[in-house]
Amino acid sequence: MYPKIKFIWTFSLLVSLVIILGACSNNATQGSTNAGGEATNQAQTKNNEPVQSSPAVKSELAAPVTIKHLKGEMTLKEVPKKIVVLDVQFADQMIALGVKPTGSVIAETDNGLPPYLGDKMSNIPLLGTYLEPNMEGIIALDPDLIIATDAHNKIYDDLVKIAPTIILQRTEDWQTVLLKFGQILNKPQEAQKLVNGYKQKVSDLKTALATKMKGQTVALIRPRDKMIRLQTTSHRTSQILYNDLGLTPPQMANNAKDTSVMISLEVLPELTADHMFLLQDDTNLELTTKFQESAIWKNLKSVKDNHVYSENTAQWIGYYGPIAINLIIDQIATALK
Prior knowledge:
The protein is an alpha/beta fold.
C-alpha cells in the first residue's frame, strides 16, 4: 500500500511542476510580446508625429519677453517649441534665424513652398494659403504659438482657441519683424546681426551704383488685369530701390499715398524709365507676352537699351524676410552693375 501512495504522490508532484513551468513559460513569452508591441507602437507614434521645429533654440528665456502686436501684448516666459506661421514671410524670418516653423501657409500665387528657400522648408506641413489657411491642419499640429497677420483678423477668435496668437501688420518693416522673431526665438543677437549685415550690403551697393546710375530712372512694373501696375515710391519693394539704394524713380512713380497706380500700355512710354524691373509669374505670363509683342513695348527706350529685367513676382513682393530681401539685392546688383 505504501509504494502505491508514494507513486501517486510523486506523480502529482511532477504534474504540478509541469503546470508551473508551463505557466512561467507562457508568462515570459507574453511579456516579450508586450514589450515588442510597445516598442513597435512607440516607433509608429514617432514616425507619425508632425515635423517639429528645429531644436536650435534654447528652451528657456533669460527673462520674460513682451511682444507688442495688433491685438495687444503677449508675454513669453519660454521659447515656443511648435510655431505655426500664416504668412510665408514669417517662415523666411524663422529660417534665417536657423529655426523651422512647425507648419506654414503658402503664397496665393504659388503651387507650393517658395523655390528660393529650396530644401530649407522640406518636410514642413503646408496649411493652405495665407488668405485661406487650413484650420483643421493647424489644429492637428497642436502648436504652442501661432503668428498671423492683419489679413487674419476675422479668424483671430478661432485661432486663439487653438493656441496663443500674435497678429502682426503684414506690411510692417521686415527688419522690425525680424527683431521681434529674435525675441520670440531667444535669438536677439542673431537677428540684429542680420539687420546690420543687410544695412552694410545695401550701403556697399549704393556706393557702387552711385556714379553709373546718376541721372537714370528705375521703374518697378507688373502687368496685371489687362494693364500695367506701376509700384510707387510708397511700395515696400520700391523703397528698397529708392530709399535703401538711392536710385531715382520716374516722376510718375512719385506717390506718397498709394503703393501702386494702374497705367495702360499706351501710357507706358510716358513713364520714360531708363531701367525697368518687370515682375512676372504664371498669372500674368500671357499678358506680359502680349505686351512684349506690341510695337509700343518694342519702342521703349529701356527695351531698346536691353534694360528690362524680369524677376519673380512672389519673391519680390510676397516674401519680406531677410533671405528674400537679400536675394532681391543680389538680383538688383546683377542687373545694374
